[in-house]
Amino acid sequence: MKNSDTRECILDACERLFADKGVRETSLRAITGTAGVNIASVNYYFGSKKGLVEAVLKRRLDPLNSERIRRLEYIRKEAELKGTRPSVREIMRAIFEPILLFKENTEHSENFLRFIARSMTDPDETVKAIFLREIRPVFELMFELLKKACPNTPDDVLFWKIQFSLGAMGHSLWGFRRLKMVPEGIDTDITSHELLELWLDFVTAGIENGI
Question: Start and end of every HTH tetR-type domain (predicted)?
Answer without folding.
Answer: 4-64
